[in-house]
Amino acid sequence: MQVTLPAKEAKPTGTFRIVRGQLELDLLELQRSRGTVEVDLGSVLMEGDNERQERERTSRARDWLNLGASRPDAEVERSRFARFVVTSVDELSHEAPHIGRRLPPLPQDSTTKTEKGAEGSAGERRRVTAKVTGELEVNGFRVQRSAAVQLDFHYDVAATPGLPPTRIQLSSRSPVSIPLADHDIQPRDTHGRLVSADLELVGRLVGRNARVAFQLVAVP
Predict the structure, then answer these.
(1) Domains in the chain, start-ordered, CATH in brackets?
(2) Residue 199: C-alpha distances to residues 14, 110, 195, 204, 206 (Å)
(3) What is this structure's pTM?
(4) Three-class SS string for the chain?
(5) Are 182 and 141 within 8 A, CB to CB?
(6) In the predicted model, what is the mean pLDDT of residues 7-34?
(7) What is the mean pLDDT of residues 146-163?
(8) Tens of pLDDT along 175-192?
């Protein structure tokens, strides 16, 4: 999961390396599906021109997220995970995965030959697009958010009604914009105290909005 914070003079970029969650899919009526995704904010890794700069930027990001090294462990644990709970699935391109848009097979999904030389598909991929809406909780603040997503359903055989896929790839169709102010993400030190001297960084070197793009894989 990648995050960027475009500002006037810089564009900080990083990755959240640990994401977990659960999807409860209705394979005949996707609109009834629900799920929860949790992001370990402590797993953030910011990019830099060298290893030292990466460490400094990553440490600063953790401070701003209220996960500073000098914070009590119990308090860090309370702020550690961002949670998105799906409350609705709308604007579906297809009501069920088995009728989704058929995609070309991946290289590993190579076709097989029958004894007569005809080609037979080793599996299928079907794509459905949708708008997912839910509640995003970060740093104790819960705000409603929506995301335009696509779901690629992978099957070992031809897709049929209600057939469980072997895996699902869930991707953002465009980055989700998250205002830092909505979740009280501000310049902080390792103790979690606000650093007023660094407020001028917001908007100049660190964007006021985090733009999050993701590509997740779910398996049964």
Answers:
(1) 2-218 (2.40.128.110)
(2) 20, 55, 7, 10, 10
(3) 0.87
(4) CEEECCCCCCCCEEEECCEEEEEECCCCCHHHCEEEEEEEHHHEEECCCCHHHHHHHHHHHHHHCCCCCCCCHHHHHHHCEEEEEEEEEECCCCCCHHHCEEECCCHHHCCEECCCCCEECCCEEEEEEEEEEEEEEECCEEEEEEEEEEEEEEECCCCCCCCCCCEEEEEECCCEEEEHHHHCCCCECCCCCECHHHHHHECCCECCEEEEECEEEECC
(5) yes
(6) 96
(7) 96
(8) 999 999 999 999 999 999
The torsion defined by the Cα of 88, 92, 97 and 100, in degrees rounded to 10, comes to -170
Tokens matching residue 192 = 């979690």
